[in-house]
Amino acid sequence: MKFLCVDCDRQMAFDERAVPGDGTLAAVFKCPACGRKTAMLANPMETQLVSSLGVKVGGRTVPEAEFEGIRTGVAEGRDDAFATPSAKNPGPVRWTVEAVERLGHVPSFVRGMVKKIYNDYAKDRGIEEMTPAVMDRARSDLGLEGM
């Protein structure tokens, strides 16, 4: 994908990357000729999909290190692997049979990502059980109705 400056008909160059912390990703591109900028904003689901594919937005500033893929995979392991349940870190979310059946309708290549989004939504709100009603509320609250 390339972004073109409408006025100059030149390919825009990557300028900056921003991760606001709400699950979205913004990438800014700048025309090398006239300086006009444009931004691309990815919603949380798109951002997670891009991240799960290992795409690094913004390019590299240092050469790739030996075994970087393996090191990154180990370093990005589960944050809660050794955490004990507490008010701040509730235990795993229980999924009802109906919620699991509904998740089964999601294409397999994104199912894990979708389940993580729902689990994160529930944990952030102290919800202990995932139901179709909670899934509907999460889709609405996260702006994912069209997906």
Can you put this structure into words, describing what you see?
The chain has helices at residues 44-52, 68-75, 97-103, 108-124, 132-141, and strands at residues 13-18, 25-30, 37-42, 94-95, 129-130. It is elongated, with a radius of gyration of 19 Å. The protein contains five helices and five strands; from the N terminus they run E-E-E-H-H-E-H-H-E-H. Strand 2 and strand 3 form a beta hairpin. Helix 1 packs across helix 4. It is an alpha+beta fold and 147 residues long. It is 35% helix and 15% strand. The mean pLDDT is 78.
Give a brief rundown of this model.
The chain is an alpha+beta fold. The protein has five helices and five strands; from the N terminus they run E-E-E-H-H-E-H-H-E-H. 35% of the residues lie in helices and 15% in strands.
Task: Please tag this protein with its features.
about 150 residues, alpha+beta, 5 helices, about 15% strand, three-stranded antiparallel β-sheet
Q: Describe the global form.
A: elongated
Strand content: 5-15%
- Strand order, main sheet: write it out: 1-2-3
Q: Give unreliable regions as ranges.
A: none
Question: Which secondary-structure class do the elements indicate?
Answer: alpha+beta
What is the count of β-strands? Answer: 5
Instruction: Note the main sheet.
Output: 3 strands, antiparallel
Tally of helical segments: 5
The span between the termini is: 21 Å
Topology:
Elements: E1 13-18, E2 25-30, E3 37-42, H1 44-52, H2 68-75, E4 94-95, H3 97-103, H4 108-124, E5 129-130, H5 132-141
Parallel strand pairs: 4-5
Antiparallel strand pairs: 1-2, 2-3
Helix pairs in contact: 1-4
